[in-house]
Specification:
This is Glyoxylate/hydroxypyruvate reductase B. The chain has 12 helices and 12 strands. It is α/β, with parallel strands linked by helices and about 325 residues long. It has 2 domains: about 110 residues, NAD(P)-binding Rossmann-like Domain (Rossmann fold, 3-Layer(aba) Sandwich); about 180 residues, NAD(P)-binding Rossmann-like Domain (Rossmann fold), CATH 3.40.50.720. The strands form 2 sheets. A 7-stranded parallel β-sheet has the order 8-7-6-9-10-11-12, with helices on both faces. It has a 5-stranded parallel β-sheet with strand order 2-1-3-4-5. Helix 1 runs parallel beside helix 12 and helix 5 crosses helix 7. The protein is elongated, with a radius of gyration of 22 Å. It starts with 5 loop residues before the first strand and ends in an 11-residue tail after the last helix. The structure holds NADPH dihydro-nicotinamide-adenine-dinucleotide phosphate and the ligand O=CC(=O)O. The site of the ligand O=CC(=O)O has 6 residues, from loops.
């Protein structure tokens, strides 16, 4: 009987995914009490057919000489920690988990929009600190309307379209978007208008970042971009921290150049204890949790494991990243 392919998991997965995995592969899981160092990882990758490596940066040097290795699977849709072309040159496929998280991430982004606009996080802290002492708080704590305003989506892709759906059908918003190419379906369904970034920044009440991090999108929102936004606008980042020049954003928020920011992702994660965001009122913060509902994380793990199994067996996984 042929032996099962061997795979390595850098982190645990739910029981359902493990049950499926054990039917097809033999596996080891990293002991979560120790950080996984590069040298350990290199030695492990030399001995396996595939690895689940969410959150670990892997370059060509790390997989060089790993002759048995056929696939690296990440349980995320973003793959900015990897270079799929370099990996392919070493004979290793990279897979990710698109589609299964789209609705869940769009929900969180809308939560950030609502919290930022209506100052929900700030007002929550206001009450918890015992500062609500009479009737309605003063107009200094009033927020902005969301319905029928203009939303600008930078990165109208799979998740961007789900955000557009909520914006149009739920809140009657006008929709602008910025991509390199047209998204005809979004234009037809949501009456979305494709515009240059500068136009999107100057016309939008809500600027939502949903682009992948790449050399082109790193610090796409810098000091100049922030200056183009309305002083009443809210910036929402559901993509990756480095899409914003965080220092420029902190300056803009401290000088009230924009109304506020609602952020799920940061240049450094977890956010350092002395980070200026921790004491700013005009920010809403969530800890990179866009896809993190129990059901969606289970679906992502399952999809990642299915990709891992297929790749380790020498078959073509569903979600091969082309780069
Ligand atoms: N906060 C969280 O927990 C999560 C964050 N994410 C992040 O969201 C990103 C998007 O995910 P998803 O919607 O599935 O990805 P998609 O690839 O479906 O969409 C990305 C969109 O961005 C556009 N885009 C890419 N590069 C550029 C560029 N240089 N300038 C302008 N537009 C660009 C693309 O259009 P075009 O090619 O035409 O330019 C595309 O429409 C992920 O890569 C990940 O980083 C995803 C899930 C959860
Ligand atoms: O950030 C999460 C992802 O899936 O990408």
């Amino acid at each position: 009987m042929l032996s099962k392919p061997k795979v390595f998991l850098a982190h645990p997965v739910p029981e359902s995914a493990l049950t499926y995995l054990s039917q097809h592969c033999s596996y080891t899981i990293w002991d979560q009490h120790k950080p996984l160092q590069k040298d350990d990882l290199r030695n492990i990758l030399k001995q396996v057919d595939g690895a689940l490596l969410t959150g670990h940066a892997v370059d060509a040097a790390l997989v060089e000489g790993c002759d048995q290795l056929k696939v690296i699977s990440t349980a995320t849709v973003g793959y900015d920690k990897f270079d799929p072309i370099e990996l392919a040159n070493e004979g290793v496929l990279l897979t990710n988990t698109p589609y299964v998280l789209d609705e869940t991430v769009a929900d969180l982004v809308f939560g950030l929009i609502l919290s930022g606009a209506r100052r929900i996080a700030e007002l929550h802290t206001h009450i918890q600190k015992g500062e609500w002492r009479k009737g309605t708080p003063s107009s200094a704590l009033f927020g902005q309307d969301v319905h029928e305003k203009t939303i600008g989506i930078v990165g109208m892709g799979r998740i961007g379209e789900k955000i557009a759906h909520r914006a149009k059908e739920g809140f009657g918003m006008n929709i602008l978007y910025h991509n390199r190419s047209h998204r005809p379906e979004a234009e037809k369904r949501y009456n979305a208008e494709k515009v240059e970034l500068d136009v999107l920044l100057s016309r939008s009440d809500f600027v939502v970042l949903m682009v992948p991090l790449s050399d082109e999108t790193k610090h796409l929102i810098d000091k100049e971009a922030l200056r183009k936004m309305k002083s009443t606008a809210l910036l929402i980042n559901g993509a990756r921290g480095n899409v914003i020049d965080e220092k420029a954003l902190i300056d803009a928020l401290q000088n009230n150049e924009i109304f506020g920011a609602a952020l799920d992702v940061f240049e450094t994660e977890p956010l350092p204890q002395d980070h200026p965001f921790l004491t700013m009122k005009n920010v809403t913060l969530t800890p990179h949790i866009g896809s993190a509902t129990a059901a969606t994380r289970e679906a992502m793990a399952m999809r990642a494991i299915e990709n891992l199994v297929a790749g380790a067996k020498g078959e073509t996984p569903t979600d091969v990243v082309k780069g």
